[in-house]
Design goal:
There is one protein chain. The protein is built from 11 helices and 8 strands. With about 290 residues, the chain is α/β, with parallel strands linked by helices. The protein has a single domain, classed as 3-Layer(aba) Sandwich (Rossmann fold), CATH 3.40.50.1820. It has a 6-stranded mixed beta sheet with strand order 1-2-4-3-5-6, with helices on both faces. Strands 7-8 form a two-stranded parallel sheet. Helix 1 crosses helix 11, helix 5 runs antiparallel to helix 6 and helix 6 packs across helix 7. The two termini are about 25 Å apart.
């Protein structure tokens, strides 16, 4: 049975946020987006999960999408830790264990939360996680000529122009084949970038978070649940060389590298990524049933 996608507001760790949620069966799946993105990045994945009758939740992280701003003081990643932990608790209300999957910044949060022994986790699917090596993604964004032109304009630009410029930068940075990026996916990303001030706010979050993003942000050796690491081999934002940190530290971790794919496999290769996620979820369901 295909489950309907429900869009609603949710309170997590004191932050109001937008949630895209599916009812369903099997280990529930929590989906965490990347920097300057939103829960909308997971709509194709949610469509696959809905077709399979899977329980799932995608949220906007504070400071992005339609979520509340971050608290002005305190580490950024710790605030996200609180939000993700409460999202897991929300999905696990019926006593099940949760699969957490995240892209880029969301992949970083997936690895961080995976070291928590107190949470009901069934497995982890970090996708091109930021922070394992020098986080070049932020320098790449700030130095992009389109972004610099947008922020350096002496006069305010119309919202449509801002979104068009942000969309062009997004195509170039996130996709291995920029011109092949579907327009509806680009528009879904840019609708949360209404004007230059919004873009500037997102970059302020990145500058604030950047000192926290390093290998020291993780306790990989404490991860004891099954882990499937996914990366595109043409990722311009976060090098797949970072995979070695996870594979060396996490016993039994598996690695899938998608040929010809950029930073967002859930968008550029939704079929292949969906197959990997559903296969992993089915494995975890069988393991839970056998336990």
């Amino acid at each position: 049975m295909r489950e309907p996608l429900i869009e609603h507001r949710l309170e997590l760790a004191g932050f109001g946020t937008r949630a895209l949620e599916l009812e369903g069966e099997g280990p529930p799946v929590l989906l965490i987006h990347g920097f300057a993105d939103s829960a909308d990045t997971w709509r194709l994945t949610l469509d696959r999960l809905a077709a399979e009758g899977r329980r799932a939740l995608a949220i906007d992280l504070p400071g992005f999408g339609e979520a509340d701003p971050l608290r002005p003081k305190g580490p950024v990643l710790e605030q996200y830790d609180e939000v993700v932990a409460e999202a897991i608790a929300h999905l696990a209300e019926d006593g099940g264990r949760v699969i957490v999957a995240g892209n880029s910044l969301g992949g970083c949060m997936t690895l961080r939360i995976g070291s928590r022994a107190d949470l009901p986790l069934a497995g982890l699917v970090p996708v091109a996680p930021a922070g394992l090596d020098m986080p070049r993604w932020f320098q790449i964004i700030e130095r992009d000529l389109v972004v610099r032109g947008l922020l350096g304009s002496p006069v305010p630009m119309p919202g449509a122009v801002v979104r068009r410029m942000v969309g062009e930068a997004y195509r170039q940075l996130a996709f291995a084949r920029p011109r092949a990026a579907p327009g509806d996916l680009v528009r879904s990303f840019t609708r949360h970038h209404a004007d230059a001030r919004a873009v500037s706010r997102f970059l302020d979050v990145g500058r604030r978070m950047l000192p926290e993003l390093s290998i020291d942000a993780f306790e990989l050796e404490r991860i004891s649940v099954p882990l499937l690491l996914v990366w595109g081999d043409r990722d311009r934002m976060v090098s797949c060389r970072g995979a070695r940190h996870v594979l060396d530290a996490v016993s039994g971790a598996r690695y899938e590298e998608l040929a010809g794919c950029g930073h967002c496999p859930q968008l550029e290769e939704p079929g292949r990524f969906g197959d990997l996620l559903l296969g992993f979820a089915a494995e975890r369901a069988r393991a839970t049933s056998a336990a």
